[in-house]
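Blinded run. Sample ID left blank on purpose so nobody reads anything into the name before looking at the predicted structure. Input follows.
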Amino acid sequence: MNRPVRLTKQAIADGAAELAGRDPALAKVLQAHGPPPLLRRPASLGTLVQIILEQQVSVESAKATYLRFREACGTPIRPDAIVRLDVPGLRQLGFSRQKARYTLALAHDCLEKRFRIQSLSRMNDEAVREQIVARLGLGHWSADVFLMTALLRPDVLPVGDLGLIKGIEEIDQTEYATPQAVIERARSWRPLRSIATRMVWQWYVHGRGRDIF
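Blinded prediction complete.
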């Protein structure tokens, strides 16, 4: 069985040029900022915990908590280290009660072999999504971010991502009120929607004087 395609820095540069030729909005982004970064993360338990921390908070806030968490657990982050911390230990590191519960449940799923992160790289996008959303507190946005940044899949559209929605609204000067409207807007980006999303993120964060991730 063929392994799923993974993005590379060169594939992103080539894809950004192709997308700019199809979509004037993305041409504007490419002209202003050049090709977007790869944004690669390890396909690991630690990355999934970082994604949990990033839910509905700023990237900067999540990163600060994650760095404390990584220092407490050591690297690589192992599920038994999380279980030893338990909810009180995670709370002391800055996790909300809910996110501590999600993280502990994820660690138990890994320890008890209900969830095998190392096998995700061999699965297609939908199978990966099914595995991730079956975990407590990990929904479609979390699956999309993992698919895009840890597995480097080329055609993921995170319709629940605020940066994508606000970014494309700003670029187009148009409101997209529903996920379906975003999906329709992105139809011409197939099969490179992960690259187009990076370009929109790039526009969005540069407009606010920040870096991506």
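Unblinding after everyone has recorded impressions. The longest helix spans residues 59-73.
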